[in-house]
Amino acid sequence: MSARGVLLVTGGSRGIGAATARAAAKAGYAVCVNYARDAAAAAGVVADIQAVGGRAAAVAGDVAVEADVLGMFEAAAALGPLTGLVNNAGICGPIGRVADVSAETLDQVFRVNVLGAFLCAREAVRRMSTARGGGGGVIVNVSSGAASRGSAGEFVWYAASKGAIDSLTIGLAKEVAGEGIRVVGIAPGLTDTDIHAAAGEPGRVARMVSLVPLGRAASPEEVAGQILFLLSDAAAYCHGGTLRATGGL
Ligand code: NAP
């Protein structure tokens, strides 16, 4: 049994999710590391955790596919009772303007970022709710500063999907407040991960950094630190809100 129970991190193989998985293991969680395609990266995160005496398991699965989500939660249960979910898996789609976006991009982004987060939140509530025999826990939804900026000319659909995540955080927090579950969000700003290359612009961080009042991008590790704070008892009164951690952007 791990001191803080079991944390499921969706999209835990790379970027913010991988940094969160490593930090959570150091904080005493057994970590279920979900990934979509990059099995080697997920195995690397698990190996890093095990190398320092932690417990972790990797599980493949697309958050937008209900059967895969059920499989992820089964894999997490094999590590022990669930005490936390970091709803982190997310995609932007290729950079562009609304007038040019394909229905396929809209479908993919909303399926992964919104449907996926809802399915995972639902399953976490079913397992952690004290009204259903669970022991309580924390859900951290990974939003984005884009939700309030709108991301004009880049990916308005992505910004809108994160706006939906903020509403999920507000509403679900009210639903489960009496069931031992805290629900909070984190809205990172420009963070140095692969997501920018995946959107078609590997140099996006360098291009955008001058717009950030703090003058730099965040590292995945510092976003992970903020997520670990939100998971901790130090954030016991944070419920229903989304912490903006955007360097002022
Ligand atoms: P990233 O480096 O591109 O990593 C994305 C992770 O999500 C990978 O582990 C990937 O798995 C996984 N993933 C993608 N689609 C998935 C699916 N359908 N099912 C399960 N897992 C899936 O991204 P990141 O920058 O760390 O972003 C993490 C979260 O932070 C996202 O929600 C993003 O919107 C948010 N965010 C990022 C920034 C930023 O500037 N980077 C800013 C604000 C918010 P594979 O390795 O298998 O592909």
Question: Which terms would index this structure?
Answer:
globular; seven-stranded parallel beta sheet; single chain; binds NADP nicotinamide-adenine-dinucleotide phosphate; 7 strands; Rossmann fold; alpha/beta; 249 residues
Characterise this structure.
The protein has 249 residues and is α/β, with parallel strands linked by helices. It has nine helices and seven strands, in the order βαβαβαβαβααβαααβ. The protein has a seven-stranded parallel beta sheet with strand order 3-2-1-4-5-6-7, with helices on both faces. β1 (6-9), α1 and β2 (30-35) form a beta-alpha-beta unit. α3 (66-77) runs parallel beside α4 (103-128). The longest helix has 26 residues, at 103-128. Residues 10-11, 13-17, 34-38, 41, 62-64, 88-91, 112, 116, 142, 144, 188, 190-191, 193-195, 198 line the site of NADP nicotinamide-adenine-dinucleotide phosphate.
Please describe the topology of this protein.
Blueprint: E1 6-9, H1 15-26, E2 30-35, H2 39-51, E3 56-60, H3 66-77, E4 82-87, H4 103-128, E5 137-142, H5 146-149, H6 156-176, E6 181-188, H7 195-198, H8 204-208, H9 220-231, E7 242-245
Parallel strand pairs: 1-2, 1-4, 2-3, 4-5, 5-6, 6-7
The chain binds NADP nicotinamide-adenine-dinucleotide phosphate.
